[in-house]
Amino acid sequence: MPSRSLRVRSSAPTSPRRVLVTGGASGLGLALVRALVARGDHVLATDLQADRPDALPDAAAYLPLDVRSDEAWAAALAHVRETWRGLDLLVNNAGVAAGGRIDVATMDEWHWIVDINLLGVVRGCRTFTPLLKEQGNGHIVNTASLAGLVHAPGMAAYNTVKAGVVALSETLSHELAPHGIDVSVVCPSFFRTNLGSSFQGADTEMEEAGKKMVSGSKRTADEIAAVVVRGIDARRDVILTDRDGHVAWRAKRFARPAYTAVMKRAAKRVAAGR
């Protein structure tokens, strides 16, 4: 899904949208909930907590949802049908972080991140696509990462699931277009959030490196969310949220030898334990 050929299909909506956001209690999900509520949308935030998180804005509704559970997704669909009779925007945002070299990360870690970051998005798309087809319109937004487009060493599991989300989103953007359904994928690079707290796994060196990159970023979740909302309003296929992302993606596409050299140097640092 190349960034240079992003399609812009419409301007910002003039009426409030009915929106469901997964992972909406913290990080980018919470920032998106706040931004969407601020622009006047009706927002249903979902997350793992049984009780409504205190951080949510008063105007947002809340529903517990574990994206690994088919039953929880079915309950979310039933709630949306009963409450709103439809849905305008589904934001599959819930996710966790993992970093690990291929011979250090365990298969349990792979199953864990695939089930949440990739299959969680698949479940959301599968659950709500029939409703959006019934309506003849709608918009699915899947949160991936710049790691889904450019693939640094030491992050095989995370890169793989995020690339899967990019591939799923592009596939559905074509498949669902005849039904009036748009699909976008969000690919931010590092920004300050609590995502680092979800790191877990055997490769503690890569975990610490990942946490430093997250905590050391100058970008905030609110800044990223503002860019994402503008991209959603513009119906962009791929939403790159920052200069680093644009530079890295263009380097991979148009200056591949230089991009490969950078990744090889990064791999040497990983191998040396730095």
Short description:
This protein has eight helices and seven strands; from the N terminus they run βαββαβαβαβααβαα. It has about 270 residues and is an alpha/beta fold.
Describe it for me?
The chain has about 270 residues and is an alpha/beta fold. About 45% of the residues lie in helices and about 10% in strands. Strand 5, helix 4 and strand 6 form a beta-alpha-beta unit. Helix 7 crosses helix 8. About 40% of the residues are buried.
List the helices and strands and how they pair.
Layout: E1 18-21, H1 27-38, E2 42-47, E3 61-64, H2 70-84, E4 89-92, H3 107-135, E5 138-143, H4 156-175, E6 181-187, H5 204-215, H6 221-233, E7 238-240, H7 243-254, H8 256-271
Helix pairs in contact: 1-6, 2-3, 3-4, 7-8
- Output the helix-strand order: EHEEHEHEHEHHEHH
Structural class: alpha/beta
Radius of gyration: 18 Å
Q: Mind summarizing the main beta sheet?
A: 7 strands, parallel
Question: How big a fraction of the residues is strand?
Answer: 5-15%
Specify the helix fraction band: 40-55%
General form: globular
Q: Runs with pLDDT <50, length 5+? A: 1-10
N-to-C CA distance: 33 Å
Number of strands: 7
Number of helices, counting only DSSP H or I runs of 4 residues or more? 8
Mean residue pLDDT: 87
Spatial strand arrangement across the major sheet = 3-2-1-4-5-6-7
